[in-house]
Specification:
CATH architecture of the largest domain: 2-Layer Sandwich
Order of helices and strands: HEHEHEHEEHH
CATH class of the largest domain: Alpha Beta
Low-confidence stretches: none
CATH superfamily of the largest domain: Ribosomal protein L10, N-terminal RNA-binding domain
Mean pLDDT: 85
Largest sheet: 5 strands, antiparallel
Number of helices: 6
Strand order of the largest sheet: 2-3-1-4-5
Distance between the termini: 107 Å
Helix content: 55-70%
Radius of gyration: 27 Å
C-alpha cells in the first residue's frame, strides 16, 4: 500500500514533467554533498529545478504524465533537471556542469516536450545551439536576403534610367 508521502511525490513529479519544456536525466554517482548543493544552487539561479528521484516513483509519474519514453533514461541513481523556459538554456547548463572540472555528472538523455527520448549526444548537440534571440535573427536575415536581392534587381533599370537622365541634365547645363 503506497504511503501518502509517495502519492504526493508522484503527483509532484507528474506536475513537473507536464510543465517542463525539457526534462534531462543524469547520473550523479560520485558527486559529494557539497558539489550537489553547488549544482542545485547554480541550476536554481538559471530557472532549472534539479532533483534526485526514486526510479519507481518516476516511472509512475511518467506514465501519468503520458511520457513513457522517460523510463528508458531512468536507470540506476538518477537526478532529473526540469527546464521550464528555453530548452536550449537548460541543456547548456547541465552540459556545462557535466564537462566541468569535476565531470562527475553524466547526462543520460532528455525529453523535449512530448517528443521522443534524446540520447546524451543529442543533448550535447542541443547545448551547442546559439541562444534563441540569435537564432531568430539568423532566421530573419535568411528570410530577408532574397527579398533584398529582388528589390535590388528590380531597382536596377530605374537606377540606370536615373543615371542617364542625370547625365543628360549635366550635359545640357554645360552647354
Amino acid at each position: 500500500m503506497p504511503t501518502q508521502e509517495k502519492i504526493d511525490r508522484v503527483e509532484e513529479l507528474k506536475d513537473r514533467i507536464e510543465r517542463s519544456t525539457i526534462t534531462l536525466a543524469t547520473d550523479y554517482t560520485g558527486i559529494s554533498v557539497n558539489q550537489m548543493t553547488e549544482l542545485r544552487r547554480a541550476m536554481r539561479a538559471r530557472g532549472i529545478e534539479f532533483t534526485i528521484v526514486k526510479n519507481t516513483l518516476t516511472y509512475l509519474a511518467a506514465e501519468e504524465a503520458q511520457r513513457p519514453q522517460m523510463k528508458d533514461m531512468v536507470q540506476g541513481p538518477t537526478a532529473l533537471a526540469f527546464g521550464y523556459d528555453d530548452p536550449v538554456d537548460a541543456a547548456k547548463v547541465v552540459a556545462e556542469y557535466a564537462r566541468g572540472a569535476a565531470a562527475l555528472l553524466t547526462i543520460r538523455g532528455a525529453i523535449l516536450g512530448n517528443g521522443p527520448a534524446m540520447s546524451a549526444n543529442e543533448v550535447n548537440r542541443l547545448a551547442t545551439l546559439p541562444p534563441r534571440p540569435q537564432m531568430l535573427s539568423i532566421l530573419i536575415g535568411q528570410m530577408q536576403s532574397p527579398i533584398v536581392r529582388l528589390v535590388s534587381v528590380l531597382n536596377g533599370p530605374i537606377q540606370n534610367l536615373d543615371n542617364v537622365l542625370q547625365a543628360r541634365i549635366r550635359q545640357l547645363e554645360a552647354a
